[in-house]
Write a structure and sequence with these properties.
single chain; four-stranded parallel β-sheet; globular
Amino acid sequence: MKGYKSGSKNIVNSSSGSSLSRSGTGVPSNFAITFSTLLVVCMLFLFSTYYFHLRISTHPLQEGNMQKGGFVFNRLHGFNVSKNDTIADVIIEPISWVQIEEKARKDIEFYLNKLKGINHVDAELPVQLESTIPSTAIESEPPPLHELDCPHAELVTFWKKTTKADLQYKSPYNDFGPAKKYVTFEPDVGGWNNIRMQMELVLVFAYATGRTLVLPPDQPMYLLNAGKGPQKSHSFADFFPFQLIRQRFPVISMEEFLRREAITGHLALHPHGVHLNSSGPPPSAGPLYPPGNRTVFQGSERTERLLLWDYLRNVSACPQWKNLKDFLVIPPRPGLNTSLLGPAEAAEYQRRVDVAAAGRRARYNNDFWQRQQYIHFVSKPSLDLRLLEHFYTFLHFQDRHMDLFFKRFVRDYVHYTDTILCKAARIVHSMLREGRGSYVAFHIRRSVRP
């Protein structure tokens, strides 16, 4: 039985014997208690941010620290953290405002020095790699450093001027396999950071193996799909300066790829494709043309995207490397089996592979994969086909100089467009000014299940 008494505004639940008073003299409502609690929490949070100066940064996976699923931390000035500490081992020490003000100028200098290089990847190329460069080309001078034309550009400029050796670098895999080799891929189905990581990985794979990168058509991206019709769709060129990237290795659109290879009858059902709509390739197969013999697919329409992906999955060799379970080893050059080298050299190569593995299976870019003219990366979580990793953890270059070269390439070329970076420069400058030379950034994940 439930009753409502209008005079005192009591709601009575007879089954529990409890009541909730809404009168001015009664017990505070649940809303008032919740609001007061939130207010206290907010005040405590503001108090802690004023009196605690916490600066922790994740340390990139490096040799000796490659623990699967774990993070390690750098020792940053003003805060003692061992690189082997876990987050539970960290002790937060209070730092007064006087100390913060004294270090403000040093903080900005430290911040700018961090932008001068990333992960110490500026080692010179060895002679044996430079020997692959044509003697006539090595005389050309590298282009000037790309500069942002906006205020406070120095706060977000982390790339460096390309060296002559890097400018003329040629992958040893360029001339191995078909003369024209391509990589196509389906963008990741997750949020922007996942999409970006996968694109970077495929981009480096294409450059390292001497392939042309084919960009997918414009399409909606998770949480970046506001607007109607074409306004909901984006290309990677909206975010990255492909006019600069194309100066280093070939990148083409999906429309151009289909016009070059599909309409001309060069593509056929591939035995190592992912055949989701059939039991497998027929005993004999001729040219397989795209649906409707088209070269233009509207990425904004889900049906059209699926038609295109299904076609590419059927006509390409599709690696089924599993996310966080496999990683790809790229030998120093085609056909080289490092295990057959001298005992000491072979042991060192194997040691580095074991460190990079961190419990994952090593897959190799062997002759089979290098001879494939068309490689397509499927993005389908239900098949456990999703390359949700950074390129520097999934791709293991056995030649350390190749490894450093491609890290420099991503640093110097695969950054955001000028428009995005100039907007970021204004924000960073405002936060530095507001924080008297430094600021604390929190990355808060919501609605993420453990």
